[in-house]
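Course assignment 3, question 2. Fill in each field.
Student: A.L.
Task: Predict the tertiary structure for the chain below.
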Amino acid sequence: MEQTGASSPLRAGLERGFESVAEFAKLERVLAFFCLFIPVLLIAFDDWTIRDSISDYYDMVQNQIFYVPLTIAAMLFIVNGTVKEQHRYNTYLGVALAGVLLFNQDDARWIHVASAVAFFAGNAAVIYFFSRGTPRRFKLYFLAGIAVAMGAFLIFDWFTLFWAEWFSFALIAVHYILDSLEKVAYEAAPRPQPVHITKKRTE
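Answer field:
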């Protein structure tokens, strides 16, 4: 005789957890899409002034427009790394981005620069080494885009760091969105299998 009723509470609990992760993935995509347009907000609330870098906006008059959206972005990484066990590296990326916000480029320049490098370089490493669902050629496209943007600024001085950062940040956000479109079943707890309990007959 087989009884599966004993496993139903456990199964129901795990399925609720699975659904929660799926809903969280939807929220992540919305926030990542929002992050794409953070530089637009900075320009718009700074009298349409394009500064040398995104970090330069920390002392704008309405500096909440700088701190709040980027804090949301940092928390997006940190929470993702906490909720999804396979994405623990995102916690460190979120801490690096938080370092960019906590230490401005004028008062703590080296900590600020180190945090920025850790964030962008860390994202590049994550895209290449840890993104399981993205084809290798697309990974290379993303990394090449970031490298070209930074090289165009550092080596050729074709444009300011602001545009290189925005382009790199946009690629990171797009990759984040595409990565979250994968089946969340892989990231969530595996669906439980029925437990079969066989009652031994006594003769």
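Instructor remarks: Residues 11-185 form one domain. The chain has seven helices and two strands.
Grade: pending
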